[in-house]
Write a structure and sequence with these properties.
By secondary structure, the chain is mainly α. It has one domain. 53% of the residues lie in helices and 0% in strands. The chain has 5 helices and no strands. The protein starts with 9 loop residues before the first helix and ends in a 19-residue tail after the last helix.
């Protein structure tokens, strides 16, 4: 169970929780996968609360202010440091949240009409697949 009232970003937590329940029911996901979504939403909402502090109560997928797209990206970048090197879990958690945001964007009219460059960037990355290869080191090319 996910209790949105446990977070300062209650609106965001409620939006993601509602999408999580709908998605799991519609896709008949297994308990393990459903649990992964709950963990991803919980971790993101804790991060939003910590990062936005007093502004967290206004966090929403349907509002441009505060623009949480940068918070989402910072959360994604923080995930690898919380797991052993080579873990694919950070990419999975990011993908699970992006799947929910993608689903919610079709319901929440304000999401893609805010004009926010951050949301436009996120919406184009919401494919349901991991958006980053968290297990490899970026390769460097030699300058010409």
């Amino acid at each position: 169970m996910l209790d949105p009232t446990a977070f300062t970003c209650r609106v965001l937590a409620q939006q993601l929780a509602a999408e999580w329940v709908e998605y799991v029911e519609a896709t008949s996901r297994r308990v393990g996968t459903a649990t992964g979504y709950r963990q991803a939403v919980t971790l993101l909402c804790r991060f939003v609360d910590d990062t936005l502090q007093g502004g967290a109560s206004a966090a929403s997928l349907a509002e441009a202010d505060p623009d949480i797209s940068d918070v989402l990206l910072a959360w994604e970048h923080s995930l690898p440091s919380q797991r052993p090197v080579g873990s694919t879990r950070p990419g999975t958690l990011a993908s699970l949240v992006r799947t929910l945001i993608s689903g919610a964007s079709s319901i929440l009219t304000g999401l893609l009409t805010t004009g926010s460059a951050g949301w436009q960037r996120i919406s184009t990355d919401c494919t349901g697949a991991p958006t980053r290869n968290w297990t490899s080191t970026p390769t460097r090319t030699k300058p010409p």
